[in-house]
Amino acid sequence: MLKGKRVLVTREKAQAKALSQTLERYGAIPIELPLIRIERAKQLDDALVNEWHTYDWIVFTSQNGVKYFFELIGEIKPPTWPKVAAVGEKTAKALQKRNIVVDLVPNEFVAESLAESLTPLLSTHARILLVKGNLARDTLREQLNNIADVTDWIVYETTINEEAKPQVVTLLQQRLIDVITFTSSSTVRSFERAIAKENVDLSFVTIACIGPITKQTALDLGIPVHVCPHTYTIDAMVQELYQYFQTRGE
Q1: Which of 41, 99, 153, 236 yields a CA-CA distance of 20 to 30 A from 68?
Q2: Rama region for 175: left / alpha / beta (φ>0; ψ in -120 to 50; rest)
Q3: CA 235, CA 225: separation in Å to the nearest integer?
Q4: What b/e readout covers 77-112, taking b as 16+ CB neighbours within 10 angstroms?
Q5: Rounded to the nearest 5°, which phi and psi values hold at 131?
Q6: Do 235 and 26 form a contact (C-beta atoms < 8 A)?
Q7: CA 97, 128, 230: angle at the middle one, nearest 5?
C-alpha cells in the first residue's frame, strides 16, 4: 500500500515527472527534490562530432546519453549507422523514438550484462564508441578493452545540487517523508553528502533503489536499502514498494 505515503523523488528535475506520475497512480504523494543536476559536457571532443558514425558500434549507457548525443550531432545523418547497443529498455526506447534501430539490449540492464552480450558479436579489432556521462562506471570499457578499440565520449555532466541540502535535512529531521527513492548512484552520493555531519535519523524511512549498482552504492555509504526490484525500471521499483508495504500491512 502506497496511498498517502510521502515519497522523496531525488532524481534530476527533468526526469522526476515520470517517477512522480507513477507514484501518484498508486496513491503516493511525491515530493520532488532533485539532488543532482545534469547538463551538456563543457569540454567535448569536437572530432567525435564528425567521426562518430565511423565506429562499428555505438553504446548508449543512459537516456541522458541519448539526449545529449543528438544535441551534439544536430542534423548530421550518415548514409549508414553503426550498430547500436543500449544498456536498458528505457534507453533503447529513447533511441527508437528517434527511429534508430537498436541491435542489442541485454537481459539485465547493467554494464556487466551488456559487455557479456556484446562480446560474441564483435569482429576482430572492432571500434566501439561509449556515449556516457562523467560519472559513469568504467566497467564497460574495462571489460571490452581486451577485445576491441574502445573510445569514451562524455556528452553530459552530473553535478551535486548543493541547494537541496538544507531541504533534505529539514524533511528528515521533521519526519515529513516516508520513502526515499534513488535512481542512480549519483543521487545516493549526493544524499549522503547532504546528510553528512547532520543530526539525521533514517530508521523511520523506507529506502528504495532502482537496481543493484545503486543499491551497492547506498550500502557502501552506510545507507540501508529495503526495496530493489529484479527489473531495473521505475515502474518495477514502485510496484516493489507497493508490495513491500502491502506485505507489512502498512
Answers
A1: 236
A2: left
A3: 18
A4: eeeeebbbbbbbbbbbebbeeeebebbbbbebbbbe
A5: -95, 120
A6: no
A7: 60
Could you tell me if 33 and 164 are in contact, meaning their C-beta atoms sit under 8 angstroms apart? yes
Pairing of strands 36-40, 83-86: unpaired
The domain made up of 6-35+161-248 has a fold known as: Rossmann fold (3.40.50)
**Residue 86: all three cell numbers together:** 543500449
Name the architecture of domain 39-158: 3-Layer(aba) Sandwich (3.40)
E strand or H helix at 60, and its extent? strand 57-60
In CATH terms, are 6-35+161-248 and 39-158 the same topology? yes
Could you read off the pLDDT of 110-164 as tens digits, one per residue?
A: 667 888 888 888 887 899 999 999 888 787 888 888 889 999 999 999 998 989 9
How far is the C-alpha of 123 from the C-alpha of 250, rounded, in Å? 54
pLDDT, one tens digit per residue, over 35-66 is 999 999 987 778 898 899 999 999 998 899 99
Count other Cβ atoms within 10 Å, centred on residue 175.
Answer: 11
Chain centre to alpha carbon of residue 79:
31
* Greatest Cα pair distance in the chain: 59
| 29: Cα within 13 Å, side-chain hemisphere | 6
3-class state of residue 2 by DSSP: coil
